Amino acid sequence: xxxxxxxxxxxxxxxxxxxxxxxxxxxxxxxxxxxxxxxxxxxxxxxxxxxxxxxxxxxxxxxxxxxxxxxxxxxxxxxxxxxxxxx
Length: 87
Description:
mainly alpha, about 90 residues
């Protein structure tokens, strides 16, 4: 019985072989990237949930006021990255 592979030139068969050997490598990389994205999404959601719980406990307005206070302190301590001048 003859198959489609018998009709393909050697160069085409070699290309198919190169593709077939790359597929598992790329699929493994894609799986790892997907797992990393899921981990980041979980961490993102975890941070938001913790801040929502904190806002429910302490009050959102109090957290906003504290953030402004901390931002002002940070600005006075390190106003701009080195090498950038305001003048």
